[in-house]
């Protein structure tokens, strides 16, 4: 079986990604052969490509896709040929037409969830699930701040938070994104405006918020601490604007005995039970129309360099899908 895949032999800009043809072996024990129907593009893919999150070279890229099972390896009993499945996380290599995948990393996709939605939003949806329900479990009546509210994770998480009865203050980086995020946020602020932390204070009668979910990183870190309530939590889960600089932990005490956590999806789906439960919770929210994700961009797999450029320059909204 041949597959067309994206590979990097060195780390750097989008130009290091190459389109190659490779031979795939039959699936081994506990594995399946997948024919990809759609592939998700995530910001972490750019970190793997650039070297911010190092990978062993040469390497594929991509963590998320939806596909159909073409063949089963020995010992796979709970899946069958023809099943439509998705995965998010694990080893890189989703940027491909066919792929061998460990069966225990796959989840069945319900009939009502489209290929593109499963491929482009499962990682984001499971991220929103663990952030809102396990890292800092939000409660109805609370007010939260969610950065990059027009992005793929932001769009899903803010809709889900509102469905849970939470008042959402979303931040964005442009007027166009503010207009979009207004559909799923109670208030939208521009994080390029230095007064945004004070605006959060004004919206909360000076108290601040119990939690800030921050996937932006360096550009919003200090402001996020400044708008937290006493004993509030900063959930730093991404670095879209660059890594958070080193700081003295004493600042957490000075600003109100604050908590800081740097969670990852992998640690919240570390076993099969957690993975299935997290994915099913997201799929249920989709079925109940608590979340209506937007596929903002579609690119042929061969145009992945442009897809990465658009993502890194913040020219994308919602989720992005690559078509193999």
From TrEMBL:
- Enumerate the UniProt keywords alphabetically: NADP, Oxidoreductase
Which superkingdom heads the taxonomic lineage of this protein's source?
Bacteria
Q: What is this protein called?
A: Quinone oxidoreductase
Under the heading Gene3D superfamilies, the entry gives: Medium-chain alcohol dehydrogenases, catalytic domain, NAD(P)-binding Rossmann-like Domain
Q: What are the recorded GO MF terms, alphabetically?
A: mRNA 3'-UTR AU-rich region binding; NADPH binding; quinone reductase (NADPH) activity
Where in the numbering of this chain does the Enoyl reductase (ER) domain appear? 12-322
> Which taxonomic lineage is given here?
Bacteria, Pseudomonadati, Pseudomonadota, Betaproteobacteria, Neisseriales
Organism, by scientific name, is: Deefgea piscis
InterPro entries, per the entry: ADH-like_C (IPR013149), ADH-like_N (IPR013154), ER (IPR020843), GroES-like_sf (IPR011032), NAD(P)-bd_dom_sf (IPR036291), QOR-like (IPR047618)
Any one annotated GO CC term: cytosol
